[in-house]
Amino acid sequence: MRLEGEALVELLASPKSVAVIGASADRTRLSGRPLDYLSRLGYSGALYAVNARSDLPGVPTVRGVSELPAGEVDVALVALPAAAAVQALRDAERVGVRAAVVIGSGFEDRGAQARQELDEFVAGSAMRVIGPNCVGTLGVPAASYLTFSSVLQNEIPLPGRVGLVTQSGALGNSLLQTLIRRHVGLHQWFSTGNEVDTGAVELTTGLLALDEVEAVGVFLEGVTDPAWLGRLDEAIRRTAKPLFVLKAAQSDSGRRAAAGHTGRIVGSSDAADAILREMGARLVSSIAELADALVLAGVGSKLAGSPRPRVSVVSVSGAAGVIGADRVAQDGRLRMAEPGRGVPLDPRLHFANPLDVPFIGETEVFTDTLVAVASGSDSEVVIGVESSLAHEREELVAKVSTAATHQPIVLTSLSEDDQIPVALTLELSRAGIAYLPTVERAVAAVAAVAAQETPEDDDGAPHPPVDGDGDAGELRGLEWIAQALPAGLPWARSRVLDKPMDHAAGERAAAELGLPLVVKAAGRTIEHRTELGAVRVVRDPRELAEALPVVGEICTRHGDALMLQGFAAPGFEVLLSVLDDPEFGPVAFVRPGGTLAELLSGQTAIWHGWDADRRVDVLRRSRIGKLLAAYRGGPTYDVVRLAELVGDCLDAVGRDGLQFLEMNPVIVHERGLTLIDAVGRSAVVTHPERTP
């Protein structure tokens, strides 16, 4: 039976038996480290070594994979060159191995024989494969160290309730070291490498399902298993566990680097951010933010409370307190607590938030104040800022660690270069007090860990059109787009003239449509009509007589047809873009359209994986949804019909050769809507990593 999600994660967390294929007795070699870790660091299951040349001391050794006891090995770690790895996997499957971790490289080139053989094996096998080109996996409680991580040579992680998934092995190795040194208990870490079979989304979904895991951190370059996105969405909502995601490859250069490093196809950063936020993932912007969030979730788990928790800052420095207060005020996920009048304070202090405790050499006053504020009911988290200049750190840590407070404390220092010693931060961690380097990083971590409110659309600067230029195919105009979409959509009435200079035909078409109307290029070859002067508003016969030859000549020169189009009833103008994203599949972006497109910021992303009700809900919660819902006493526009149009376009993109389309404007009326114009591109690439 093929293991998936939670079952696969559980197997790798605590396999009853492991075989290391290509094992070496030399613990300094990459092929020797996994066997050394499993033998020395506490793994209690059955352990086998496969070595073609010699027996390895202390471990049952066989010469070939086929000599392993049939049905007795749960997991194989394959430490062989690419040329030999695939045959080892075939042999492992024949003896009943259920999952394999392939740490070897040499599979990056999709056209190479070894990679093609590996892809063929995975496609026809029930055995799950992690990797290749990964650092491996580790399950801490059972000491299931299926990895060559350098960190384990000197340190091992504490068992805990945090999960970690990283597509980059080197970055994951660095995060593992950070979590160990900052005393964060870890349940499992997966380095996923090239993801020929098992992707980061599936493993993340499996980790969230475990009762033993309370928070998960993910470093994601590109989604290779989009079929799991719906289940991840459901898992985040069902468990309400924090999922922290650092999504890399946000720029064009970053996407190119990701493709070169891992072979993954990486899509639109706008799509990824919007979809992950709507799912409930907490996006972080740096490795430090990811580590800090995991520290806070893993050590100070009491913090996961209500949305927008009230924060108090107690600081030895007035300046640091102001900085902390500014950061809280600037983050919509937090709010400053009102100063508690009932808190017992040193008579030299005054009720305030932030609360300045500027006494040098009076550690007891600082700790008493910090504990008093955290014992009150006015705050939901208290950030304390200490300094070696003012405090005796052993005394501070001893008192804070033994105090019983109602609210969690996050302790920080004035400077990253003046940190509390590691031994003392271990004492803090055991007491459930997270220590972070600075007040700025503490505020950011508190915001990431706090319960998240339902997201709205992006508040940032106007976005450039999502035009799919990275994989641009043949430009297609309104006529072709209309044929690709369902029949019966409410297009504005129009007539197309294949002979743009046939003015008599133009006059007949105008008579059928009635004035006023628009004379413009049909869009078969001309994408930006305004720039060429290929669009004219016509209100009377004189303007029609002037417009037909001018626009007709431009269309003739550029090989386009001429279109006459009737006016639509007034309404709210919307720009709708839909692209076939290589990671997430079809994604729609809705933003203000027409003359507002370049003036109003904010866009709403809608993913094809959401059902009709979810699409309507996302639209209504967005900024544009609020504008459509009787904003400031104005009309209520037809959001449901707009959501239906979005669904029609999502269904069409990625099918019948349509890779991207943009409608601008879509005029939304109080009842119904009218489609004015559209442009699109036909597909010229496939997405070989997308799972059907």
From TrEMBL:
Q: Which InterPro entries match?
A: ATP_grasp_subdomain_1 (IPR013815), CoA-bd (IPR003781), NAD(P)-bd_dom_sf (IPR036291), Succ_CoA_lig_flav_dom (IPR032875), Succinyl-CoA_synth-like (IPR016102)
Record-annotated CoA-binding domain positions = 12-107
Annotated membrane-spanning segments are: none
Q: Where is this region: Disordered?
A: 450-473
Q: Transcription regulation: is it a keyword of this entry?
A: no
> What SUPFAM superfamilies would the database entry show?
Glutathione synthetase ATP-binding domain-like (SSF56059), NAD(P)-binding Rossmann-fold domains (SSF51735), Succinyl-CoA synthetase domains (SSF52210)
Q: Which UniProt keywords apply?
A: Ligase
- Please name the GO terms that the record assigns under molecular function: ligase activity
Q: Highest taxon of the source?
A: Bacteria
Against Pfam families, the record matches this protein to: ATP-grasp_5, CoA_binding_2, Succ_CoA_lig
* UniProt xrefs under PANTHER family: COA BINDING DOMAIN CONTAINING PROTEIN, PEPTIDYL-LYSINE N-ACETYLTRANSFERASE PATZ
Write the protein's name.
Acetate--CoA ligase family protein
The organism encoding this protein is Nocardioides endophyticus
